[in-house]
Design goal:
about 290 residues; alpha/beta; 8-stranded mixed beta sheet; 9 helices; 11 strands; about 30% helix
Amino acid sequence: MPWLPARTRPMILIEAQGIAVRQGRTQVLDGVSLSVNRGEIVTIVGPNGSGKSTLLRALIGALKPNRGKVRRAEGLRIGYVPQKLHIDPSLPMTVRRFLNLPHRVAEDEARSALERAGVAGVAHRQMSDLSGGQFQRVLLARAILINPDILMLDEPTQGLDQPGQAAFYRQIEDVRARLGCAVLMVSHELHVVMSASDRVICLNGHICCEGTPEVVRAAPAYRELFGTGTGGALALYRHEHDHGHDHDHGQDHEHHHGHDQHNHSHGASHDAASTDGASDPAKQKPAKQEHAS
């Protein structure tokens, strides 16, 4: 990265350097390098089984890569919104009580987080009574309680209809504007997410291409994976490819509470370093790559 004056130099919050993840005989990720700067919204897109959720887990420290490094800014605060979280519907659990897990939070902090997430007024409702969109916004509220430096979201709108998806992404943009945090999210909703992102990374076991939404949309590697136009969103589910699958996505269906168990914050005490090529408008790599199995 070229030298820039301190006032204009972007601050790298988190970066991966050539990471590889192997699960059994399947090479899920191979040679993946990326970085996220303060205040930007970066979206990772890719076919089912392309390693998107695996990459997110490696970045937050829940999974150790077989090769390569993940570096985080010192004292980095990560707010995480999982893909799935199951709460037993027979268990009495109000939204307010849920926000107290695992640590009690002050009433004004909880109220502020719910307002920022767009669900003011649900504090005393049961988690089991929330709609899918409300449930996701409560997870978002919990993630922003720590005033994160970066928000990481794994398929946060899975199961929502298209208007619900668009509304949720608008809420993410509003949270970014209010908190000044970076956002890194995994998404399937290409037709929505393109307009909500500063930078898009197309992943298929390796990084096929990356850049601004306009650049990535025109990239041959992206077109090969997803087709063209908004119809490319449908191609995402039909795409046949030669990479190992990490089975990180379920079927897109209506539900209220299909969400992962991790939604606590993570921190790290490592210094961030610059990454090669992170500021290029687009890095295109071959769309297909053989992996050992």
